[in-house]
Design brief:
This protein is of the alpha+beta class. Strands 6-5-9-3-2-12-15-14 form an 8-stranded mixed beta sheet, with no helix packed on it. Strands 17-18-19-21-20 form a 5-stranded mixed beta sheet, with helices on one face. The chain starts with 8 loop residues before the first strand and ends with a helix. Bound molecules: arginine and zinc ion. Residues 122-123, 253, 255-257, 290-291, 294, 313, 366, 369 line the site of arginine. Residues 533-847 form the Peptidase M1 alanyl aminopeptidase C-terminal domain.
């Protein structure tokens, strides 16, 4: 069984389970190395299913006993589960199993983290807890009894009887097993309270390990804001008497939406001004919202099978983006989302791991919690909303909640509610779900006799397993500017449905300047021949904040590409334009900070590769350094002014306004540091009374090569705080010089605080190496070697995190023959490891091609 080659699962093979479950009762007798799980499950035949084979998933379980209707049975047990003869009438299955939470380093199922018991069941972890049909289309109400000495014993739903050494929980809402959760530990709570709009009181808690009490307030505020927002914007009320959040130190992902008991990576929930940056706060607010929003989009309406993962994830990411846009600045949120989409999803979509938003097959579902399913999935919701309008979207969502509450639904169900609510035919839209790859949108234009015409042509390059890419419907938001900078056509959404299509605008007095794909209305790559003068014009005049930012980004990118391809000097037009923008006090400081950002090394590598040039990582880094230096010189006067102007003097608040000011001031600090060798950064470091200021200064010092004293001081100050020490590990690697990065990462793996068992720490060290692109791709190949060494070490302990981190290699085909050979050798070395996990085997094989 063990060495059987991993099986591929196909969407087309879906069949319903042969039984339904009326009730589940579980008893846990906790013990670190020998926990007993006693289950009592009421099954009855599913009238909608043909196949009545009784198969229960189960992995790493020791079966103690099993019975049906009280009669002992001897099921047929394999590594993957059990089968058993069962009656063709309703029956009660009972089983007792033993599991070993302490030995569970994969952090899937029931495991221990710093002395507390916790669970992670999505996607297929419940089968490591007991025998069960571990699939999202089998829903049941759960009764849970926990027996243990820990002070706090939590599970899903509402509390029942509690006493010395035990607690009972009842979850009345039928749910699939992946939403099950249990937590037990000597925890403390930060309490809160919410009254729903229909007047139902809800008890709220953030549970943490003693010592972390002072890091809970922000999460609680964020939770209350989320609950209110979902009522106001989506009409969704909470549906239990209690909502618990627990912070766990060892966690593979960000967080998990278990019904009534959300479990969070402590990095995604714990925060206070001294230990957390503005960016941490914003991310925590978004993740709290995301998990809370899942209560409706995920829990009340779940997925029929894991191919439909984007049904809950795409929609919930979209909802949390809307929430952040409402809480903070919509423009800044949109720009940041697109930066992240391009960095992660476009990269994925243009490489060997490309897959549809709704994949058709997988080996290990954990490998499909990707930027494509999440972030591109959210973009598809945004396009739907653009196509049907705000009202159509609201009607469709109401119908979705009304019709599918309590269901395990599909993407077909989802699109059907839009079709019915709005009368639109969405057959062609479905291609966005089924076809992988990022469409290219070629744009040309002409003007004659007052008529301006935009010509579009779409094409999508082949992706693994999909060569033919028919045209998709693309909503293209367009505005037109007159020669004096005034808008002559307000934003209009053009619906492109064919491979080639033209749209004309009449009655114009002069040839306008087009602002195409406003708000990034579709996840495509626009290809348009234009000149820098036009970009500078858009940067100055475009009323659409996204395209205004985009014009500046294009200027910067094309200037860098010219430096790389033709040895050009930094572009003066860019230097002038960015300065003009930074000086414009009418613009939001956060927007100006984004406009100061430059394309990443990875963006430039992809752009060169797309243009037929083999990227040289060292040259890319040097071009960026040259441009940053030129900017620092050009802004020698401006930078100190901005720095002074945007110092925040009020008490620290992690709100949008203060964060924007700090971001811009710290951007200015980066410019200053290039010329003053770190004096200002050291002063800021010494005076800092919050982590945003401290960390910004620390980064500047490291980049300037003046970080030694701060590195020691930072460690001495924060050695007691795991989350802060993660930052310490990561910043040293990310900011290491190209030739040092691999050595710094390797040296830090020898630090007494390094641990392979904590995914945050592992990522802070080895994930950071992959983030230092020039260091990772150092010509010696040592970056590749160090990462591969550690992935090989981590795989037997934690396959999920190992497999995810393999994507550091996904862009390998871009590079020169020498680098390709070195990476191929590392990939082959990983694949050759005996007993390599299914997760990592699938990832590395797909990358290797
Ligand atoms: N559903 C969680 C979320 O909110 C993520 C869980 C991912 N789990 C996994 N094993 N891949 O996005
Ligand atoms: Zn989610």
């Amino acid at each position: 069984m063990k060495d059987a080659s991993p099986q591929t699962i196909y969407l087309k093979d879906y069949t319903p389970f042969g039984f339904r479950i009326d009730e589940v009762a579980l008893t846990f007798r906790l013990d670190p190395s020998a926990t007993r799980v006693i289950s009592r499950i009421a099954f009855r035949p599913n009238p909608e299913a043909q196949d009545r084979r009784f198969f229960l998933h189960g992995e790493k379980l020791k079966l103690i006993s099993a019975s049906i209707d009280g009669q002992p049975v001897a099921p047929d047990v394999t590594d993957e589960g059990l089968t058993c003869e069962v009656p063709d009438t309703p029956f009660v299955w009972e089983a007792e199993v033993e599991i070993d939470p302490q030995a569970n380093t994969a952090l899937e199922g029931l495991y221990m983290s710093n002395g507390m018991y916790c669970t992670q069941c999505e996607a297929e972890g419940f089968r490591k807890i007991t025998y069960y049909p571990d699939r999202p289309d089998v829903l049941a109400p759960f009764d849970v009894r926990i027996e243990g000495e820990e002070k706090v014993l939590l599970s899903n739903g509402n509390p029942g009887a509690q006493g010395d050494g035990f607690a009972e929980w009842h979850d009345p809402w039928p749910k699939p097993a992946y939403l099950f959760a249990l937590v037990a530990g000597d925890l403390v709570n930060h309490p809160g309270h919410f009254t729903t709009r229909s007047g139902k009181p809800v008890e709220l808690n953030v549970w943490v390990r003693p010592g972390d009490e002072n890091k809970c307030a922000f999460a609680m505020e964020s939770l209350i804001k989320s609950m209110k927002w979902d009522e106001e914007v989506y009409g969704r009320e909470y549906d239990l008497d209690i909502f618990n959040i627990v912070a766990v130190d060892d966690f593979n992902m960000g967080a998990m939406e278990n019904k009534g008991l959300n479990i969070f990576n402590s990095a995604a929930v714990l925060a206070n001004p001294a230990t957390s940056t503005d960016m941490n706060f914003e991310r925590i607010e978004a993740i709290i919202a995301h998990e809370y929003f899942h209560n409706w989009t995920g829990n009340r309406i779940t997925c029929r099978d894991w191919f439909q993962l984007c049904l809950k994830e795409g929609l919930t990411v979209f909802r949390d983006s809307e929430f952040t846009a409402d809480m903070r600045s919509a423009a800044v949120k949109r720009i940041s989302d697109v930066i992240a989409l391009r960095a992660r999803q476009f990269r994925e979509d243009n490489g060997p791991l490309a897959h549809p938003v709704r994949p058709e097959s997988f080996v290990e579902i954990n490998n499909f919690y990707t930027a494509t399913v999440y972030e591109k999935g959210a973009e598809l919701i945004g396009m739907l909303k653009t196509l049907v309008g705000d009202e159509g979207y609201a009607k469709a969502l109401d119908l979705y909640f009304e019709r599918h509450d309590g269901d395990a639904a599909t993407i077909e169900d989802w699109l059907a509610v839009f079709e019915e609510a709005t009368g639109r035919d969405l057959t062609q839209f479905m291609r966005w779900y089924t076809d992988a790859g990022t469409p290219r949108l070629k744009v040309t234009d002409d003007y004659a006799d007052g008529t301006y015409t935009l010509h579009f042509e779409q094409s999508t390059p082949p992706t693994p397993g999909q060569t033919d890419k028919p045209p998709r419907v693309i909503p293209i938001a367009v505005g037109l500017l007159g020669p004096n900078g005034d808008e002559v056509l307000e934003t209009q959404v053009l619906e492109m449905t064919e491979t080639k299509q033209s749209f004309s605008f009449e009655g114009l007095g002069a040839k306008p300047v087009p602002s195409v794909l406003r708000g990034f209305s579709a996840p495509v790559i626009v290809e348009r021949e234009t000149d820098n003068a036009e970009r500078a014009f858009l940067l100055a005049h475009d009323t659409d904040p996204f395209n205004k930012w985009e014009a500046g980004r294009d200027l910067a990118r094309d200037g860098l590409l010219a430096m790389l391809r033709d040895g050009a000097q930094p572009d003066d037009l860019y230097l002038d334009a960015v300065q003009a923008m930074l000086r414009d006090d009418s613009l939001d400081p956060a927007f100006r900070w984004l406009a100061l950002g430059l394309p990443s090394q990875d963006d430039l590598a992809q752009a060169l590769y797309d243009g037929g040039t083999t990227p040289d990582p060292q040259a890319i880094w040097e071009a960026l350094e040259t441009l940053k230096h030129a900017r620092a010189e050009a802004m020698q006067d401006l930078a100190p002014k901005l720095y002074a102007q945007y110092q925040v003097t009020e008490p620290y608040q992690p709100n949008a306004e203060q964060s924007g000011a700090r971001a811009l001031a710290n951007g200015a600090l980066g410019l200053i540091t290039r010329l003053d060798g770190g004096a200002q950064a050291q002063a800021q470091y010494d005076a800092a009374d919050n982590m945003t200021q401290q960390l910004a200064a620390f980064s500047c010092l490291l980049q300037a090569g003046k970080g030694d004293a701060a590195t020691q001081a930072f460690y001495d100050q924060w050695r007691h705080d795991r989350l802060v020490i993660d930052k310490w590990f990561s910043l040293q690697v990310v900011n290491a010089a190209p030739e040092d990065a691999a050595d710094v990462a390797e040296r830090l793996t020898g630090h007494p605080d390094f641990s392979m068992k904590n995914p945050n720490r592992f990522r802070a060290t080895l994930g950071a190496l992959a983030m230092n692109a020039v260091g990772f791709h150092h010509a010696s190949g040592k970056g590749y070697r160090v990462l591969a060494d550690w992935l090989i070490k981590l795989d037997p302990l934690n396959p999920q995190t190992t497999a995810r981190m393999c994507s550091a290699f996904e862009t390998w085909r871009r590079y020169d023959a020498d680098r390709q050979a070195k990476i191929a050798a590392e990939l082959d070395r990983i694949l050759a490891v005996e007993g390599l996990s299914r997760d990592t085997t699938e990832m590395v094989s797909r990358i290797r091609g």
